[in-house]
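dumping this here before i forget
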Amino acid sequence: MFGNGNITTKELLKSVRQIEIKTSRIVNSYFSGRYHSAFKGHGIEFDEVRKYTIGDDVRAMDWKVSARYNEPFIKRFREERELNVIILADFSASTDFGFTKTKHNLIIEVAALLLFSALKNNDKVGLLIFTDRVEKFIPLNKGRNHVLRIIRELIEFEPKNIKTNIADTLEYFNRIQSRGSVTFLITDICSEFPKKEIDITKKRHDFIVCLVNDMLEYQLPNLGGTLIMSDLENDDFVYFDMRNKRVKDKYLTEQNKIMEDKLNFLKKNSIEKILLDTSSDYVNEIMKFFINRIR
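structure:
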């Protein structure tokens, strides 16, 4: 559906419209209320002063106003529901891989779903696109036009670099975003997670990792002959003799160990995660995450 090579304005607008229709329908049908309940605002804020009535908590008494009018008044507060939601989107070359769809396209769809969920809650949203450096940053703002601007950027943006650097990305993000936000890191990170930068991010923000994978990375097809696999970020190639069971088993063992290490790191460091696959129902996975959060 998406691509960032030589896209025309007409094609771009059509893609934006398609994703708005699809995503808005999902948000209205399945996510209504759950997104709102899954995340907390920045705290409570002052609402009004009103006259005391029997049963009110005397600890909320506003003594200055009560003294001025010679009758009891209390302060009322309400929960601040507006959130700051920021998407950190991995656009490194490895995300161009995929069987039924590329990981890059899945990242765009997931980001759009989260953005429209935030729009329904009248939240501010922002975007940071990264590779091994920060390629694009769109500051927080609210409203439909702002969300559509971000989605247009996601669809048409062409990164200059191909590698991944989560550490520098989070260091930059924490430097420019001091106020707490709900932060979704959507990545297929193939290297180790940077513990120091993640610890800092967790302290300042509500941090969720969306880990994007593809089934072919952990399940080789039953084909004969030689399979050529390329590392898109390092311009390297590996040749597999698909008739050699030992070679296939070794590859799958190594790949599954990489995934196991990622999941163990997230669990050990109490990092919330959403596991996504290009061939699975990402809507259902995000829904389950919201429901578990509410519980």
